[in-house]
Amino acid sequence: MLRNGPERCWAGAVRALVLNCTLKASPEPSNTDLLAGVVVGALRERGVEVSILRLVDMDIPPGVVTDLGRGDQWPQVHAQLLAAEILVVATPTWVGRPSSIAQRMLERMDAMISETDQAGRPVAYNRVAGVVVTGNEDGAHHVVSEIAGALGDIGYTIPGQAWTYWNRGPGPGASYADTDEGHEWSAKTGRAMAANLHAVAGALASKPMDAPPA
Fold first, then answer.
1. Which of 9, 112, 150, 205 is the most exposed place for a label (fewest CB within 10 A)?
2. Is 116 helix (H, G, I), strand (E, B) or coil?
3. Partners of residue 50 on adjacent β-strands
4. What is the pTM of this model?
5. How far apart are CA 126 and CA 201, in angstroms?
6. pLDDT digits (tens, 9 = 90+) for 106-129
7. Tell me: the pLDDT tens digits for 45-97?
8. What domains lie within the chain, and their CATH numbers?
9. 3-state DSSP call for residue 62?
């Protein structure tokens, strides 16, 4: 049982965590980071404290438990997940699917299904999540549905239109950072995503969900 429930701090700081699942290690520029930055900026305009982790820079071995022992840095990510009311998962599209880093993230988050707070609720209850997707070919809706569906299984609430994406369309082409094409729509959708995440997080803080029926 974990002690921290999400409604504990809405009267103070609202916190968001962005997990960037790019395959590019720092300091290599990330297209996914650029689009996620639109959502980050909109959240910060609403007074949200935002932290960003680029998971490829961390030592996160495969597994389905919270702590695999010495050298595993996932417990640091887990602690930040529990400290945040809002989660944003940002991933590129590879072979029409989320990145391998995003898949590993979801597998490690699987342990949260059986973790509960002091009220007996799954620890992801009363937290909201959304998805940012980039890619120079199509497949964004498929990637959004895979990640949003998994986060819902874990216990997160997924607000309506809690996603934004950018892609070049059919066939190979320029990446997000290489063109202005489609940026206006992606940015507008990203700002709406931030507004909806913030609104639903506030509603859940005001009236939290109870533990599932026995």
1. 9
2. strand
3. 16
4. 0.92
5. 7
6. 999 999 999 999 999 999 999 999
7. 999 999 999 999 999 999 999 999 999 999 999 999 999 999 999 999 998 89
8. 6-206 (3.40.50.360)
9. coil
DSSP 147-158: HHHHHHHHT-B-
What is the rounded distance in angstroms from the CA atom of residue 36 to the CA atom of residue 16?
Answer: 12
- What are the angstrom distances between the C-alpha of 211 and each of 86, 124, 158? 19, 11, 18
Give Cβ neighbours of residue 74 (< 8 Å, ≥ 6 apart): 58, 60, 61, 63, 66, 67, 68, 108
- The angle formed by the CA atoms of residues 57, 147 and 95, to the nearest 5 degrees, is 75
Give dist(CA 67, CA 65) in Å, integer: 6
Structure tokens at 85: 């009311």
Helix (H) or strand (E) holding 204: helix 183-206
> Which tokens belong to 48?
């949200």
Q: Which two tokens stand for residue 34?
A: 């650029």
Indicate the pairing of strand 86-94 with strand 97-98.
Answer: antiparallel
